[in-house]
């Protein structure tokens, strides 16, 4: 499989992904409002380990088309379901970060035959209780004129130990938001809910690994959140000390090793 951008036409838009390598299939969903190049460090490690790796741009991001009727976890889940059926490669290991984890849970409940296992990184699989400052930030990000600069100013907080190419990736992300038709994408994601994923947690039978950075600012206590998710899914937890909301960006070798070990346990 080549690593060139491919497209899947869906009702309402066009989904961009790349597909590289041969071997067991791993589908990688980046966090909301980021690019599939979020997996630029983890992907080559998984390819070297013998996996086939597919990375996806969420709605309105990167090479995926801009204007959709809705954005968020459940629409992403439907897109993931369509992509897995399109790939027709048998059950896949899905690595979902943030709202990508919610999408993975949704598909595992609705179409378990398509999932061999779940790796839920910094998982948002329920709606949290936001404080006043967070509510204010979200409200401001729904205003198209200030959403992009506000979001870009907030973005570094998710990677407290940024990689060497952080500035370049951030510039690519900022440029993505400036492409035609994307003025309201950030606002669209600010209105999403993860309630449909939470409602399906008890229906998930797939083996699951939860990966959480101990410095993730999206929860008052990220370790407690990881343990709550693991308790609902009978999952294993891997904590990445010092990592923020994108552990696979800051500590790709640790995450790759955890994924390889977890996947190896599925065959034993």
Automatic annotation (TrEMBL):
Gene3D superfamilies xref list: alpha/beta hydrolase
Keywords: Hydrolase
Any Pfam family hit: Abhydrolase_6
GO cellular component: membrane
InterPro entries named in the record: AB_hydrolase_1 (IPR000073), AB_hydrolase_fold (IPR029058), AB_hydrolase_sf (IPR050266), Epox_hydrolase-like (IPR000639)
Positions of the AB hydrolase-1 domain: 36-258
GO molecular function, a single term: hydrolase activity
PANTHER family given in the database record: HYDROLASE, PUTATIVE (AFU_ORTHOLOGUE AFUA_2G14860)-RELATED (PTHR43798:SF33), MONOACYLGLYCEROL LIPASE (PTHR43798)
Protein name: Alpha/beta hydrolase
